[in-house]
Amino acid sequence: MRDPLDILKETFGFTAFRGVQSDVVDRVMRGEDTLTVMPTGAGKSLCYQLPAVALDGTTIVISPLIALMEDQVRSASANGIAAAALTSATQDRQAVERALLSGELDLLYVAPERATTERFGRMLEDARISLVAIDEAHCVSEWGHDFRPDYRLLRPLIDHLQAPRLALTATADRRTRADILQQLGIPVDGLIVAGFDRPNIRYHVVPRSGLPTQLKRLAKAQPGPGIVYCPSRAKTEKIAADLREMGRPAAAYHAGMEPHLRSGNQEAFVRSEDMVLAATIAFGMGIDKPDVRFVAHAATPKSIEAYYQETGRAGRDGEPAEAWLFWGAEDFARARQRIETEVEPERRAGERERLNALAAFVEAATCRRAILLRYFGEDPPETCGNCDNCLDPPKTIDVTVVAQKVLSAAFRTEMRFGVGYLKQVLAGDDNEKVRMNGHHQVSVFGIMDAEELALVQPVARALIARDALRADAYGGLSFGPGAKPILKGEQELVIAVPPKRTSRRRKAAEDYPPDPVFDALRQWRSETAKEAGVPPYVIFHDSTLRQVSAQRPDTLSALSTVDGVGEKKLERYGQGLLDALAKAT
Predict the structure, then answer these.
(1) Which of these, 7, 150, 369, 526, could form a disulfide with 384 (CB 3.0-4.6 Å)?
(2) Reported confidence tier of residue 457, pLDDT bands at 50, 70, 90
(3) Which helix (H) or strand (E) holds 34?
(4) Which residues contact 63 (CB under 8 A, 6 or more apart)?
(5) Whether 577 contacts 520, CB under 8 Å
(6) Are 227 and 277 in contact (CB under 8 A)?
(7) For the segment 352-377, what is each residue's pLDDT rounded down to a tens digit?
(8) 579 found inside a domain
(9) For residues 152 and 145, is the Cβ–Cβ distance under 8 A?
(10) Left, alpha or beta for 393 (phi > 0: left; psi -120 to 50: alpha)?
(11) What is the predicted pLDDT for the residue at 502?
(12) What's the alpha-carbon Rg for the chain, to the nearest Å?
């Protein structure tokens, strides 16, 4: 059996493992069942791709989406790994099946729906299977944010194959990790947690205030590829159109599109170095693009797990990236309504708990990263120096009295009206509507001064996020379980004062000074990728080109020492890269 370190250098172009990769690979090579929790961008795929090259037989990879499988196959093939996928998009399935049965494949990717069919199981009985890797393993747990029932059906197949199993995920809290271990038959001592920190991502969370303008400002500051997660199909189309209007390449992605349009937009995004994709969560895990420079949420995600998973699409190459969340109180109102009307009763308590954790995250005046990491069971420093609250600490204000007045106004107006109307009553606005409803005579009429009135909107937003106020389908506000302790003075309400627009924002120029040699190498890569019919990052990552620009290798031997330059890539692209470097210098 070949030394894993030799394979790491020859195939992947690296001289040392990162983080816990070595621990995971060692367990797999010993045939031990393992669950590894590693942040997106930490190199999970290498943990099964390297053993797939080293071991005798084929590694079966269970993956949830066709686009993700196709991207993995493309990247693995670029490194000289014999990889294929069996999906509804596979053009010659019989050829793939023959390659599996003849032992020609190192890797075979399949969806759980196919993996659990009787036909596929019978076919594997005639093949030599060295490892079963279950990617996005949180899908097996009903506690996870992306539960897929078909993942629950994998256990009999895995047990029958008697091959070691490796489950991988980037997002799983303690409860979800325990459920994955149980569902997939992995011992507790097989759990390896690498940590959840993504230090290269800068987190920003701001209330929505003219979302089109906010997104255009972000797109202007960040010229690289970006993803905007949208709450509806219509929003994806609108946001993409807005961004195109400002001159930015942009496209939409949602489940309601014609399949050829949806796949075409995704393919264009994967190959682009400056495009923005406005997508619903249907885009989900279906992207393995390493050079996404920002991820923005146009509305609040389902949970902290979902937020972490989706923002993890940014900066997988380790380069600086941004995560922006634009939220509104109505997001939480809709989410709570969904929990009470669409979620099974036995799961509602857990969903409420998740939503409350997300509300605390968006409202926080303290380090965003620390809150995320504590949620996943870590003990981080109090500050990270790379989130909005650390870079520009917001002022906090005790608004308990204002909150009590808002809650009282909702009660005195029969809980039939929205925030705008409550503000009129509290301001003492003696207009026709207020007088017609008789609310000019209630005790809360005109009890707020100008300073308090300026706080009504952010206070109402905080009350809705904390489930002290609930908005109905007609815009009326009623009490939630969090109202009583605030009204009785048993609980304070403290909110962060949003920073002014002049607050610090990282621009691409702050991350790296101008480098004409690097720019020339990127241009060469773009042309080479176009000729080869692959995305630019399949040729080389930005981090590799930056090293080449800094080290200026002048021979193939010297180029081979650069991270990310394995034997196959050196053979295919090495001389072309050296020629481009010589021309640029």
Answers:
(1) 369
(2) confident
(3) strand 34-37
(4) 69, 72, 109, 110, 111, 135, 136
(5) no
(6) yes
(7) 888 888 988 998 889 999 999 998 88
(8) yes
(9) no
(10) beta
(11) 45
(12) 26
CA atoms within 13 A on the CB side of 335: 25
d(CA 457, CA 108): 54
Which DSSP string do the residues of 119-183 spell out, in sequence order?
HHHHHHHTS-EEEEEESSGGGG-TTSTT--GGGGGHHHHHHHHT--EEEEES---HHHHHHHHHH
Domain membership flag for residue 357: no
* Rounded CA separation 161/400 (Å): 61
The strand pair at 469-471 and 477-479 is best described as antiparallel
CA distance 277 to 495: 33
Question: Is 60 exceeded by the pLDDT of residue 286?
Answer: no
pLDDT digits (tens, 9 = 90+) for 529-581: 999 999 999 999 999 999 999 999 999 999 999 999 999 999 999 999 999 99
Q: Which residues partner with 133 through β-bridges?
A: 61, 166
Identify whether 333 is part of a domain. Answer: no
| Region label for 300, one of left (φ > 0), alpha (ψ between -120 and 50) or beta (otherwise) | beta
Torsion of CA 19, 62, 184, 355, to 10 degrees: 70
Q: Are residues 166 and 224 located together in one domain of the fold?
A: no
Six-digit token string for 271: 């190959």
- Please indicate, yes or no, whether residues 491 and 561 belong to a single structural domain of this protein: no
Residue 351 in any domain: the answer is no
Domain with 552, as residue range(s), is 512-584
The confidence score (pLDDT) of residue 473 equals 61
Q: Taking the model in full, what pTM does it have?
A: 0.78
- Is the per-residue pLDDT at 285 higher than 70? no
The structural domain count of the chain equals 4
Task: Give the residues across from 324 on adjacent strands.
Answer: 204, 296
In this structure, are 303 and 223 located in the same domain? yes
Give tens-digit pLDDT for 464-522: 888 888 876 666 788 988 899 999 999 999 988 765 654 455 665 567 778 999 999 99
Concatenated DSSP letters of 229-262: E-SSHHHHHHHHHHHHHTT--EEEE-TTS-HHHH
